Amino acid sequence: MARTRLFIYSAAHFAVDFSCALLLLGRIRPGPGDALLCLLLYNFCAFALQMPVGLLADRLDKNHAVAALGCGACALAWLIPGLGGAVCAGVGNALFHVGGGLDTLNRSASRCGALGIFVSPGALGIFLGGLLAGGGAATSALAAGGVLLAGGLIFRLCRASGNAPVSLALSGRSAAPAALICLALVVVLRSYLGLAAQFPWKAGYAVPLVAALVLGKALGGLLADRFGLRRTAAVSLGTAALLFLLADVPAAGIAGVFLFNMTMPLTLWGAAGLLPGAKGFAFGLLTFGLFLGFLPVFLGISLPLAGKYLYALGALVSLPPLLFGLGRVKP
Does Transmembrane show up as a keyword for this record (predicted)? Predict the structure, then answer.
């Protein structure tokens, strides 16, 4: 049943992100000057809103219902025009990710392999949703129907929750508050670099890049379970930094993206370990980091350093706070 539950949540993650990307990039037709506002509102609702939603889900202890409600909201968004549709899709995305992520965390125990598998299909859903954004009514119906089906399966087959009594008390070794901040900063950096990445060969290698994103997130958790979180983080980010320096070569850049994204499930697992009585809030805290990383790109703020040197530096700068944060989580 555990594998079935993980498969359902992972497939639902793909369906939710596919539907939201397709809706936002293809169906919604905002008025003049509203396109950027539409994008901002969606990202705020989808990522920043996960903090309060996560705390609410921690208290409700109905993770499957929260995730299923999110799927329903994503389907409902197809019936709401303009900015309202973007907000509804964003709220649905937040609800699903918190409910599904919290349920997966509860069943991960001391391992983060399942968490990596859960988060990995989202990148594929976003990519295909953007690719098919010009599709017709049949594509839209498939997206809306897919999230409804996913929500129904979650509500029917994923009923058990098992949240701990809600507490915002940090658990871990000394300097746990600083450790949580460090993990959040790593997510901000990863979000910014992922959105700002502009490899000169990017357009011709979109499929391998997406595959690197998906496989990196999935394998990161599995390898961490096998070799340890800090060792996996050190090898993946250190090697990624070296490969990014060679990113003029597509194979090196793609390999760097693969290794760089291996840290995603590690940060989520670490934050949940530091906040065992509020794992949903911990999940939302890190997704708020995703929103913060989105803002500089959205506002057009650029750094003096660019290209492969920026990505290499980002990987290196991410390593010390990640190792510090993971090292303060109770084993």
Answer: yes
User: Is the CATH number of domain 176-327 1.20.120?
Assistant: no
Mind listing the pLDDT tens digit for each residue in 205-226? 999 999 999 999 999 999 999 9
For 161-197, the pLDDT digits (tens) are: 788 888 888 876 678 889 999 999 999 999 998 888 7
Using alpha carbons, list the distances in angstroms from residue 318 to 44, 185, 314, 323.
24, 8, 6, 9
Please state, in angstroms and rounded to a whole number, the distance separating the CA atoms of residues 275 and 329.
Answer: 9
pTM of the model: 0.93
Following CA atoms 299, 300, 304, 306 in sequence, which dihedral angle do they give, to the nearest 10 degrees? Answer: 120
**Cβ-based neighbours of 157, under 8 Å, separated by 6 or more:** 4, 5, 8
Q: Is 95 helix (H, G, I), strand (E, B) or coil?
A: helix
Domain parsing of the chain, residue ranges: 2-157, 176-327
**Phi and psi dihedrals of 124, rounded to 5?**
-70, -40
CA–CA separation, 34 vs 55, rounded Å?
Answer: 31
